[in-house]
Amino acid sequence: MQTRRIGSLSVSVVGLGCNNFGIRLDAERTERVVHAALESGINFFDTADVYGGTRSEDFLGKALGARRKDVVVATKFGLPLPTDGTKKGARPEYVREAVEASLRRLGTDYIDLYQLHRPDPEVPIADTLGALNELVRAGKVREIGSSNFSVAQIEAAERAVPEGAARFVSIQNEYSLLEREPERGVLAASVKFGLGFLPYFPLASGLLSGKYQPGAAAPAGARLSGEGNLTTRFLSPRNVEIAQQLQQFAERRGHSVLELAFSWLAGRSAVASVIAGATSPEQIRANVAAVNWQLTAADLHELDRIAPLEAEAA
Questions:
Q1: Which of 6, 47, 67, 270 could, after both became Cys, cross-link 197 (CB 3.0–4.6 A)?
Q2: What is the CATH number of the domain that holds 87?
Q3: Does 232 reside within a domain?
Q4: How far from 130 is each of 133, 141, 168, 272, CA to CA, in Å?
Q5: pLDDT in tens, 62-77
Q6: Residue 248 CA neighbour count, 13 Å, CB half
Q7: Structure confidence by residue, pLDDT tens digits, 39-53
Q8: Torsions phi, psi of 303, nearest 5?
Q9: Catalytic site residue 51?
């Protein structure tokens, strides 16, 4: 599989998002998915301390076992943990506490990419970066990254890094054919500062997987099959209509909408790895095969017409 760089790390262009572990997958099914990913050439696993109520890290660590040394493990901190809601944020003392907890759950003595899950408005970014730099110097973390940062926040973090200290090498924001907000500046900032861009929700929470058909109920057990904020947001009339047009676009060219969603993202020069969740070995293999479509300039022009960047609200 093709690899790309995130700082000093070499990651597979298709990664595995581990947010299903501990929620939709138990430990045994997690192991099957992880092993299928390894067999398919995936070396990049992205999780977070909050995923699965902290079980994702635990399940991932156990599933990797002796293969830990062969992969790049990314995790995140900062969102409220389910214990009592007080364990959260980016204060230096909490950064040090959170990393130790993640290391224990993952069963490892280092994290390849440690990411701030979202900015903490109560903590100067320089303070957080100082604590993260300590972790890098101690060998507990190899590289550090950000998530859900705006252009202004990316720039502020760059200004706050002392010479020779660890700096963010990645940015993980939502990005897909149905959510093109990063094109308003975050992608350009990623290129300017050498940040590997990691799109989350690359399949719009499954809407671009080909499982959802207009006028039909969502498949049982699918992420958007029930009620909730994600279902309301992603299954909007606009999104359903565009997803149908994208599927027709792909099928006319002998491809699936899944292949379109992955290949469109992989074709962006700023994107380091397309990370998507999977609940079965079959999904893993489909994801890995989905980045081989080389879209033409004419294809991209037509996609801009079908799924344009939405106008900013007045």
A1: 270
A2: 3.20.20.100
A3: no
A4: 5, 13, 12, 25
A5: 999 999 999 999 999 9
A6: 11
A7: 999 999 999 999 999
A8: -65, -35
A9: yes
